[in-house]
Amino acid sequence: MKQEETPINYQIVRQMIQESGLPVIGHGTIREIVRLVNNIEEATGEKFIRMEMGVPGILPPECGTKAEIKALNEGLASKYPMMEGVKSLKKELSRFLKLFLNIDVDEEGCLPTVGSMQGSLATFMVANRTDHAKKGTLFIDPGFPVHKQQCALLGHDYESFDVYNYRGKKLKDKIESYLKQGTVSSILYSNPNNPSWICLTNDELKMIGDLANKYDVIIIEDLAYFGMDFREDYSIPGKEPYQPTVAKYTNNYILLISSSKAFSYAGQRIGTMAISNYLFNRKYPDLKRYFTSDSFGYSMIYGVLYALSAGVNHTSQYGLAAMFKAANDGEFNFIDQVRLYGKRAAIMKKLFIENGFQIVYDKDQNRPIADGFYFTFAYPEMTGIELLEKLLYYGISAIALDITGSEKSEGLRACVSQINENQYHDLEYRLGMFNEYYRRKIS
Q: CA separation (Å) from 282 to 105, 129, 218, 298?
């Protein structure tokens, strides 16, 4: 088979890559890859196996959309929301934290944000300005690339390391090696992890919490994939097991809880931030370099969130509040709804392995990695950057692990959410063609 005999027109793909303006396709951001694939699909009329962006593949819960429609019909779209958020959302988020994490956060520290991305940006703007002697964030990688982009945008310093080789007791020593320098203001990680789907254990979270206490560092826990480690059942409100969280072990925390994945509400751009009671009320004199108040919570609401967007979409707050309430009342099992992603991941990983690929992050300490929203894969004798570009000719898109802070430069991240059962055969066929061509080249 000639290389030009690919499932997607070889010449068109090459032309679109050249016209993309990206010097190295594998270094492109997620949205840049999305734009490139959109252009290829439009030019060829062919549908890709799209794995580059974490887009919900499930309809949002009806209870949420009905509540938002009701709010729209009541004319709330014409009214500015209060900066602190609507009362029903604050109440239900506080309940949700108690019922699914078993932690107590007062309603005043439960805040809506314009997606978790606004939440992280706002958090950097306050947390990294609490002490003039500290400079920025430590990222426990691999992670969501845009968080580092946000720090760069703000002019904040950051450091990072790939957690894969520092699990268990090694994690404490690795983190402490950075904290001893005295320049870290905050630590950010996602759990489950995007992109590797590693899940930090309660023991590891306790180590992080203990270090936060010792070095007075603020932990930013990104729970975008809340409860989606399907090896455990976190779906029953008020009953163990609870979603693991650092909030059990320190008061220096901010939780970012997204509506995009667990509640499939990505398009409404609403997320939530939960600031611990201790941190919300804490005073940092150095905050007055930037804000009118030295109170952490006041600075967050009226110093940053107000300046960024003057509030969060009014009616979508009622939609999310309704979903939290239904989950809290045991009427809506939001985790059961998203278990489909784990089933898709199991099928897709099998297809990749059968066609010569390997799973990059394959172990979660001594356990097999969970099947979930993401998985990582590689092909022999190819870097991730090379593999990403070559797969475009076969109608398969992903992102390179290079841009996530991963040390595994040979890999790609795949998101399973946009793939449905009607595409499994097409995926198998395209992977088979790819393997047939490149297996002969490396043999």
A: 14, 13, 12, 10
Q: Are residues 347 and 221 in the same domain?
A: no
pLDDT digits (tens, 9 = 90+) for 111-161: 999 999 999 999 999 999 999 999 899 999 999 999 999 999 999 999 999
CA nearest neighbour of 318 among 370, 377, 259: 259
Do residues 348 and 414 make contact, with C-beta atoms less than 8 angstroms apart?
Answer: yes
> How far is the CA of 411 from the CAs of 252, 343, 385, 397, in angstroms?
34, 22, 8, 13
Summarize the confidence of residues 399-407 as an average pLDDT. Answer: 95
β partners of residue 361: none
What residues make up the domain containing 210?
Answer: 62-328
Read off the CATH number of the domain in which 266 is found: 3.40.640.10
Task: Answer yes or no: do 225 and 309 share one domain.
Answer: yes
For the chain, the domain total comes to 2
Three-state DSSP state, 399: strand
| Last residue in a domain, options 328, 350, 385 | 328
Query: Which residues are bridge partners to 254 per DSSP?
Result: 220, 275
Q: Is residue 427 part of a domain?
A: yes
Q: Token pair of 240, please?
A: 């163990």
DSSP 287: G
Same domain, 423 and 317: no
The model's pTM: 0.95
* 305 SS3 class: helix
Q: What is the mean pLDDT of residues 247-252?
A: 98
* Dihedral sign of CA atoms 355, 356, 360, 361 in order: positive
